Amino acid sequence: MSRIVSALPLLALAACSPAETEADLGTEVPVSEETFGSSTSGLTTANGGSLNGGSLNGGSLNGGSLNGGSLNGNDLSGFLIHVDYAGAAINGDSSLDWVRIEGTQFQAKQGDVLHTGTAFLGAWFYGTLGDGRRAKLRIADMRAAEAPNGDLTEYWVEYRDDDNVWHPLCRDSTGAAVWAYPVKGVYDYRRGVPTGGQHSDDPDHFTFACAGGAVQKCINLGYRPWASRDGVSLAAHHQACTRLIRADYCGDGTPHTQNGNRVNLYDKLGIQTDTERWFFEASWDAQGARCFSPLNRSHAGIPCYDSRLDLFCGLGLSPEQEEGILLRNETPTAGLTP
């Protein structure tokens, strides 16, 4: 299978819409009684039809967003940085022994009872914004993801504002609300810093990865960070994919793509295969582009370009050159813009 990815407008990971985060999210008010969806048919779409595109907590990472909010510079004050396991509540009851994520399914232990699946309809969580404010979240609905990822579960996540009104957490570049996957660990949403765009394991927090963002998009491409292929963990492949999709060449969280750019990506594990005869661009690992081909774009303005330029990039002429390479990509034209 070969997948061609089209870039979306620049955005960043599990974040709220800037317009929606102006309200004070810190006031805790008991949630009103509402219908979240049938517990007997929880994998339904109570909130509308097919929601395609990027996420406001996840723009496109070959389009700039890690999880898709609009990140202006390093200002993360209005964005959801992570979500807590602690304080989660099912049916208003937070006396849970533990909460965890297996794949994209939530699980919680409460005494002798194991909660999973549709038991999390209406569940509450608490998240933290970049400026330290707390946001209350709820799972309003869930459904099976579209093929070929029908074994995964998507969640319709909402947050509550200061007026006790609930709003969709994830939005795309057009403002349309979208679904999300829960992903273990946290991401550094900053740009231009050594750890920018990097995933970190965190036993206390997780991320809601919104549709269209690089984190969610790379999961849908087959790079599921919790899974393995032929005994190889796909966690590093997923990280490399988020770098590639965002054109985060230098591995510092800074995207260098443009709206509408297309990219063909592939790997040695056969998750994505090369079926195009396009122009080779770069080889990738979890830290960004390992090397660039000088026969592709000029990459003007990319700080690490000169130090990673390699006439033989991607040719695999030696084991040393192949070591550590996780993904490769091509572009349809050898254009002059990144």
Automatic annotation (TrEMBL):
Residues 35-46 have a biased composition (Polar residues). Keywords: Signal. PROSITE patterns: PROKAR_LIPOPROTEIN (PS51257). Residues 117-294 form the ADYC domain. Residues 1-21 form the signal peptide. The keyword Signal applies. Residues 22-49 are annotated as: Disordered. The keyword Protease does not apply. This is ADYC domain-containing protein. The lineage of its organism: Bacteria, Pseudomonadati, Myxococcota, Myxococcia, Myxococcales.
